[in-house]
Amino acid sequence: MSKQQNLRSIFKHFISREQSEGVGARVRRSIGTMLLRKFSPFLMLDHFNVAPGAGFPDHPHHGQETITYVNEGMIAHEDFTGCKGVLGKGDLQFMTAGKAICHAEMPVQSNSGEHVVGLQLWVDLPTDMKNTEPRYRDLRNKDIPRANPTDDLEIEVISGNSYGVDSVKDLAYTPIDFYMYRGKKAGTEFTQKFSRDFNVFIYVLKGAVNIGDQVFPQYSSIFFNTDGDAVGGTVAADDTEFAIIGGKILDQETVQHGPFVEETKEKLIKVFYDYQSYSNGFERARNWRSSIRDGIKEDDAPNHHN
């Protein structure tokens, strides 16, 4: 690890506890709880584990982006614009809700009965982008650049630059850096650079990491101060997997109620009115029902690929 780099200090950490969400789904939520309400530009982070028959049927969003990473299984999505598809293991979707979107996210019921596991991150949109038109950016696992600084460390460079490897561009409107680290052996060092105007956190999906003199086990969320140019540490257990995520701090007020995000209470109330009156982007929500709201089976999934 370079001595030239000024590593950030930790300001908060905790282990995410499991809770119910959606219809029959279980999530470990870190950002978006009483322990940490928001961490600009991030509004929520869920580590989801969804059984066959459970999921997140038709629901709206406004004023935010969502980033979904599938770790195990397959998840289908469909919205009121007619966009639909299936994300497989290692795939991502960047969804900009913007002005208005109604969609469903349902696990594909595999023939083996496996659960769908992954991460979903909610990101605030800059004020001038709150009412942009909705859009999607899918990133297939095969298209994600990899960095391999050592034989024992692999990084999926989803968004940003890691060890000299650049990501695919223009995935999100809010500037986000997103890396999935996999360490094969305990003791493997890692360092990830970040701009000082980015908030940064680590989430441990499997294994453990050592930062400073402290070991953080599975399901730990570690949040950093903005007092350095990088975060770093060592892998603390063989076969460890963790996400390092950063985002540009937005200098704006944020008022949130469920999946609706705005900068003032008055604007948030208007969004609720728009949704209830099918106006200002929500026109297509009237009488809309997704074809996957009651679930989708593996044998039917190929018909839903983009």
From TrEMBL:
Domain Pirin N-terminal, chain residue ranges per copy: 25-123
Cofactor list: Fe cation
SUPFAM superfamilies: RmlC-like cupins
Keyword terms: Iron, Metal-binding
Cofactor note as given: Binds 1 Fe cation per subunit.
Ranges for domain Pirin C-terminal: 185-279
Gene3D superfamilies xrefs: Jelly Rolls (2.60.120.10)
UniProt binding sites for Fe cation: 59, 61, 103, 105
UniProt GO MF annotations: metal ion binding
InterPro entries documented for this protein: Pirin (IPR012093), Pirin_C_dom (IPR008778), Pirin_N_dom (IPR003829), RmlC-like_jellyroll (IPR014710), RmlC_Cupin_sf (IPR011051)
Family: Belongs to the pirin family.
Descriptive protein name: Pirin N-terminal domain-containing protein
UniProt source species: Vanderwaltozyma polyspora (strain ATCC 22028 / DSM 70294 / BCRC 21397 / CBS 2163 / NBRC 10782 / NRRL Y-8283 / UCD 57-17) (Kluyveromyces polysporus)
